[in-house]
Specification:
single chain, 427 residues, Rossmann fold, 6-stranded parallel β-sheet, 6-stranded mixed β-sheet, oxidoreductase, MOFRL, MOFRL_assoc_dom
Length: 427
Amino acid sequence: MTDRRPLLRSIFDAAVAAAHPDVVLASRLRPVPKGRIICLAAGKGAGAMAAAAERHYLDALGLAPSRLVGIATTRHGHGVPTRRIKVVEAGHPVPDEAGLRAADDTLRLATEATPDDLLLVLLTGGGSANWIAPVEGMTFAQKQQVNRALLRSGAPIGEVNTVRKHLSRIKGGRLARAGQRAAEIVTLAISDVPHDDPSAIASGPTVPDTTTLGDAGALVARYNLSIDDAVRRALDDPGNESCKPGDSAFARATFELLAKPKASIDAAVKVAHDAGYETIALGADLEGEARDVAAAHAQLALKARSEGRRVAILSGGELTVTVRGNGRGGPNQEYALALAGLLKDTPDISALAADTDGADGGAGSATDPAGAMIDETTFAKMQSLGLDPKAYLANNDATGFFAQTGDLLLTGPTLTNVNDVRVILVD
């Protein structure tokens, strides 16, 4: 058997590199304004974006340091050294007190913007959890509880963010409203959401939101979320409606995408093609239950093998897991675990599934796995150790399974986030 793991990792690394802030940010930054540049960043790549902005303005353009201020809120372990923009490491996927304080500081800086200042907002995926600012009448603990319930519900990220936006003082356009005295509000974002909807990236803090309080309440009912009475009251309060198209908050606000998941999938496809594989690209916007998508992809792989084709099957998007067990893992590991169970008797097939931010589910640690890889060595270890993939799948314990087979993919923080990359190689 030829070891395909180095190639799988090269395909993944190409997808990540195509969306790194060091590559995509500098050419899109605005000219220096009359006043200050107030940089407000959030998400898993926020620290890297802030550092890239500093290099551009302070080093390349020679801006006086006193004219650059800001705060970048990122996930624990994803911070990088900066000079003028303060980096705060905060909780993800469940918010913590550091994110609560950082969101308040972010809103304060936005309100201090003057008509001479540029408000530069830099966003990557993860910003929804990093910027936590509960609406009046809701406690931080209640907001955390809602977040946990949403994460376990199996709801796609767009629906999760619909609820989040109506329980926040910073999401759903409210950051733009806080900073509307600025000369200009420029948001530059790296997309981590299917179809690249600006209002879904970090829950759209600087763009209009077309979802409503009624939509949020309906989602709470549909997923039978357990929430406190204070949360129900907040979702019934018209004062918590998000900012809609036509709001004066957006009069001088612009939004641009720096990197999209499709560009990263295209980079991954090129590496597979250059390695001699026929490529089947299933798109960058896949959604659905991880184990169900894995079953469909396994059938594609088995069909290709039966036809004697040498194929690379690639996909992006953001899958979900409806949590029914008490194990550990994330959607990419669950996808890989489901694949392992379906392909265990088949030689010459290998696969990788990982999150481009370097963390798939997990407990919010920088050492969480990015995903997992499987091949014939996985199948052999399953047999020798007596591991039943179905039992681990039933307990949502993909991490526990792959920790025993030695197949967890550990990349550490990548400092960007363009959703998931999944690759199946059929030789």
